[in-house]
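Purpose: get a first structural picture of the assembly so the mutagenesis plan has something to point at.
Setup: two entries, given in the order below. No constraints added.
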Amino acid sequence: MSKVVTRFPPSPTGHLHIGGARTALFNWLLARNKGGKFILRIEDTDLDRSSKEMTKSIIEAMEWLGLTWDEGPYFQTKRFDIYQHHIKLLINQGKAYYCKCTREEVDEMRKKAMDKGEKPKYDGRCRELGLGPGEGRVVRFKAPLRGETVFNDLLKGPIAVDNRELDDFIIKREDGSPTYNLAVVVDDATMGVTHILRGDDHINNTPKQVLLYEALGYQVPKFAHVPMILGPDKKKLSKRHGAKSVLEYKELGYLPEAVLNYLVRLGWSYKDQEIFTLEEMIKKFSIKRLSNSACVFDPEKLKWVNSQHIKKKDKRELAILLRKYLANQGIVTQDISYLEKIVPLLQPRSHTMVEMAEKAKFFVIEDEKIEYPKDTLEKFLTQEVKAHLVELTNRFSSLEEFSINSLEDVTRQYLEEKNIKFKLLAQPIRICITGQTASPGLFETMEVLGKDRTLNRLNRALRLV
RNA sequence: GUCCCCAUCGUCUAGCUCGGUCCAGGACACCGGCCUUUCACGCCGGCGACAGGGGUUCAAAUCCCCUUGGGGACGCCA
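Result (structure tokens, whole complex):
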């Protein structure tokens, strides 16, 4: 049994987006599941559109997601001599040829073919000319004129294409650089890639690539074409849909494991399970359970998945993350152990880390910075309520142990004495100590805040009205 | 236009390989209710789909064909 080798080959013409991340994930998962190898390869043969910044961004995104690679990153621009060698091989064997047709001429041919009701193609006019290299010339692959090219897709089964649908595609550009189809094949073959999982928008490329493998005498790898991710309008996901880069989700407060979890469920399933840890994903992943129809990206569900992972995540790790997201909102604190106490109160209430940071604010800022929205104090702190709160604050202050239990005990006792309902005082207290009408449970909040700050806030608010 | 792929609730999907256990299960969203000091969480319930038509069969979401619909590809982009 030979080792499974997969790869992810992004082209650095844009950020790593959701669709790319999912493809990377599937390949990574397969490699990890089989104890194989996962390669990262940067496909930067398009010199004009590729950039260093995007390469950096993609790598950063991969690292953030935790999709670790065992080899690479390789850069195609550093492998030009390898491609050159293979191209020469094909030419020498009469399997490829130089073509002197201009772009305009080719356009013309394509138009003609269209008019005849055929697929737009190059008509092969230089095919038998035996041309040598020269200014403005490209190299084309000599595709078979008849017969069919078949490959067995691991997901969709055998796919056969009539060779008349293919044309003599370019493998080497005017400027000498290799084109995509040649470069992938040479790379995958020489890197020993055994399994290729990619979007099914590549199905049409596959016959060409199979032909190339055969012409070069390489073994054809196994292909699995996974359905694509569509926008809500059922069109290919793009910036139109705010098809954000993966890194944007980081900014928005998503956990990498949640993004991965959501992505894996888009086009893959394991019975009725929705939430997976990384380990579970690796253990349970199999090509067989990939679905074969396109799916629509649903931000709402992503959010829910994220909230589930927030609930599960280690408090300390969350506290560290929370500190970063607070800093993004301009609130700097070094006190991780304090944040660690806040986290459990916020876990069930936060769908994203950004949300958690917002909800954590009042815990962290100074007492004097608590702002009371206009009129709320007047509205909630009526004379009657105020009198109660003054008295209650007094009792709080005489508490030795400032805990949920002690706090609740004094309060209940007070309510009983005065024969009033907690409802009468709850919101007013909340307003005083948080400045908000919504917050975690009052006693928990007070405990976390601590005696000093709680009393301070209570007194300050009471004074203001 | 030509070729290729796909087709279960609004969305993600289970079930389809080995037809009966499916008047189709789960999840998100949505709508009720419960819990409750607010907001959430959680729990309970509801809404909601086998694209259509033909076959095959005692029996089809499951197999076959056609239609329709959707998506993708047709580049000196990847």
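Chain A has a mean pLDDT of 94.
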